[in-house]
Amino acid sequence: MKRIGKETNIQALRKISNLFTTTSVEVDELLAMVMDAAKDIVGVKNGSLLLVQDEKTLKLQFYQASGENTGQLKDIDLPPGVGISGSVAKTGEAIISNDVTTDPRWYQGVSEKMRTPVQSMASFPLIIDNKVIGVVQFLDKVDGSTFDKTNTEVLERFASLMAKFFQVSQTRNLLGREFGKLKEQYLQRYTIVGESEPIKKCIMLAEKVADSKATVLLNGESGTGKELFAHLIHDRSQRQNNPFVSVSCGALPASILERELFGHEKGAFTGADTQKIGLFEAAHTGTLFLDEIGELPMDMQVKLLRVIQEEAFMRLGGTETIKVDVRLVTATNRDLEKEVREGNFRQDLYYRINVIKITLPPLREKLGDISDLLTYFLKKHSPEGQPVKKPGKGLVAHLRSYSWPGNIRELENSVERAIVLTDEEELTPEAFPFEISQAPIELNVGSTLKEASDSFRTTFISNTLKSTGGNRTKAAQVLGVQRSYLSRLLKELGIN
Ligand SMILES: Nc1ncnc2c1ncn2[C@@H]1O[C@H](COP(=O)(O)OP(=O)(O)OP(=O)(O)O)[C@@H](O)[C@H]1O
Ligand SMILES: [Mg+2]
Fold first, then answer.
1. Domain that holds residue 394
2. Closest ligand 1 atom to 360 CA
3. Using CA positions, which residue lies closest to atom 29 of ligand 1?
């Protein structure tokens, strides 16, 4: 009788257990390994794995086979419930048949395909959560002996191991799908919309510098997308799978900010009963986003400068120097050069954080993006399961006539509000009741001539109408145009 060395068995098992802990290995590979190990340890000629294709009929399909003459097995079409494996699938009980030729359940098709007579067979169900998901079967011992009790026990254990692998792989697939959904939501959250030249330039610059470690200063008015760009830079860098840690320098008093950034040792100050790592450490290998850097108190500016220069710091109350690899992105809506001139911001720190500066344009300088942004926010803020509302006639022109001091955030909020307050499917200019006359329109580069002139005409005509108390005939006189032409203009520009 051929004996398989104990060493070989242990090696095979060790290999399997290593594989099981390696997440990158595919379940098919694992199953093939287990099958081979079972085959070798018990000394069988071939083994195969069949999976239930149809839960109702329990029809089985060959999935994997290894050993002599198994090449054809994958093509066998097994009628449901037929053969020894069909019975195993139906009853959920193992069958050991040491003379299949006299077993009425034996399906001749298998030996015909394999072109060798089969003598004995051990067949086990693969069960997950009380449900048979497949069958694993072993045919003929290498030494011609029959399957004994020990063989059966060993094979049965392997069968239950294979079932576990399937279960893990199912969970993994499920997790994979969940992960995919989360990723989609994440990407949606950080989508940057806009095709205008000024925003395209900013995106190109951000993408270009993403992979370097250079510090980036994001400058721009409130609501222009600075935080969005900080995420863009991180997501396009090689650090994308490492932490993105964000802190607002304006939100915390200096002493707390210091603890947050650098962490502290146990007992560093009253109330520090445990050691705590700071945000610099938390962001190690990733990106640290210091928002509202212009609000950073002077003494913290000194401390930050030191960390940037030395790439190392100490926790509060600590003696050990901690080295970190952190990419720094900062943002402010202040004019930092002015702050430096006025003595509110350290010049040396300014130079350090200002290696790459990206200045985000205010919305009034990229009015051409309003249409795309509107479409995007309409979709983003429509309640799930409800149709997405459409922009009605004149709405885009109306929105372009406003100066948007709160920039894209203001636009987003007003779209969200309009969706809630409008019952109809179309959003009209009335759903955005801002005072156009209060909106000084700046005709900046980046809009098309038509956009700029529509914008100007909307503001100018609206103001004139206002000054005549809404009297169109008077307004036409002031403007020096025909009354009918003014009506046409009002319609075209969506002015009411
Ligand atoms: N180009 C854009 N495309 C889509 N959404 C945008 C865009 N720019 C900004 N937003 C959205 O506008 C809102 C404000 O953006 P963000 O918070 O990035 O601005 P900010 O410059 O950091 O503002 P603040 O200075 O007030 O902190 C966010 O909800 C953001 O998703
Ligand atoms: Mg912000």
1. 364-493
2. 21
3. 409
Q: Are strands 327-332 and 276-277 parallel, antiparallel or unpaired?
A: unpaired
Ligand 1 atom at minimum distance from 224 CA: 21
Verify whether ligand 1 is closer than 6 Å to residue 203 (CB atom).
no
Cα torsion angle, 78, 81, 87, 92, sign: positive
Quote the DSSP letter at residue 333: S
Write out pLDDT tens, residues 24-76. 456 777 778 888 888 888 889 888 888 888 888 888 888 888 777 676 777 77
Alpha helices in 46-106 (DSSP H): 83-91
Whole-number Å distance, alpha carbon 260 to ligand 2 midpoint, is 19
**Within a domain: residue 189?**
no
Q: Is the CB of 494 under 6 A from ligand 1?
A: no
SS3 57: coil
Nearest atom in ligand 1 to 193's CA:
3
pLDDT of residue 182 exceeding 60: yes
CATH code of the domain in which 47 resides: 3.30.450.40
pLDDT above 80 (res 374): yes
